[in-house]
Amino acid sequence: MSKTIAGMIGRFAGLATALMKPGRRAVALALASERLQQVRTVPTAKGDLAFCSPTARALLDPLNFPTDEPETVAWIDEFIRDGEVMWDIGANIGLYALYAALGPGIRVLAFEPGAGSYAALMRNVELNAMEDRIAAYCLAFDETTGLDVLHMMHTGAGHSMHAFGRPETARGKMTPAFSQACLGFTIDDFRRIFDPPPPDHVKLDVDGNEAKIIRGGRATLAGAKTVMVEIEDRGGDGEAGAVAAALEALGFRAADDFNREGARNQLFLNPRHGT
């Protein structure tokens, strides 16, 4: 039904501007497109958040908050304390970065390499007047630092299943719709070069490159208290095994009392911080 109505609106706009000169018609349609973009208010336990809608996919996660990833919401609520720093790696449009930043004194560094999602992320930071709490960067993390490409299944804001470097995600090899030039850092190089505040907590969701990112951030991540990772497979081999091994090498342990069977995200704790 939604697609049908959207098609009718598009056809009506085309008919309404059909007699205009080409240049004026293009401007009129562009203005109509701008005015049709919604800003949706999403209520949360910490307060309301506003989200832009450059694509339908960009609204899907906010409209499903907090039922889509209840474990991520619970982690933010239970583990991230006032005055701490969260790094959101693979922030997409910023849903969880914004939610975390509602906490008193919490600072968030958000990283999103996809141009469309990054633009929506920055707009959402602006809509919620959180530029003093969230610093967002359009870059990828990896096991090495250098220039490469982000292979994308879809370039629109809110979409996922992209792959930095090799065209392969946790679900296997992919045929990208577009490959975007992208700057990639190891976490440790990023810290060494720019000296941002180190993370107390890390959310890691990049659809298959997680273990490489962890290995490239040994020095930085060793000081974190918790790491929440989205893991596609649950068998202990492949992505799940590689992520667990990389974090265990840094001293982390799985939060067995917190992690739910079948949950998309798994929490790892650093015993050195008493977590």
Fill in the keyword field for this structure.
single chain; 275 residues; alpha/beta; Rossmann fold; 2 domains; seven-stranded mixed sheet; 10 helices; 15 strands; 35% helix; 22% strand
CATH class of the largest domain: Alpha Beta
Based on CA inertia axes, which overall geometry fits?
globular
Main sheet strand line-up: 5-4-3-12-13-15-14
CATH fold-level name of the largest domain: Rossmann fold
What is the end-to-end distance? 48 Å
Please state the oligomeric state of the protein chains shown: single chain
Description:
This protein has helices at residues 2-16, 22-36, 57-63, 70-79, 95-101, 115-127, 187-194, 210-215, 218-221, 238-248, and strands at 39-42, 49-52, 85-89, 107-111, 134-137, 140-141, 146-152, 163-164, 168-169, 172-173, 178-185, 201-204, 226-230, 253-254, 265-269. The protein is globular, with a radius of gyration of 20 Å. With 275 residues, it is an alpha/beta fold. The mean pLDDT is 92. The protein is 35% helix and 22% strand. Helix 5 (95-101) links the parallel strand 3 (85-89) and strand 4. The protein has 2 domains: 1-36; 41-273, Vaccinia Virus protein VP39 (Rossmann fold, 3-Layer(aba) Sandwich), CATH 3.40.50. The chain is built from 10 helices and 15 strands. A 7-stranded mixed beta sheet has the order 5-4-3-12-13-15-14, sandwiched between helices. A 4-stranded mixed beta sheet has the order 6-11-7-8.
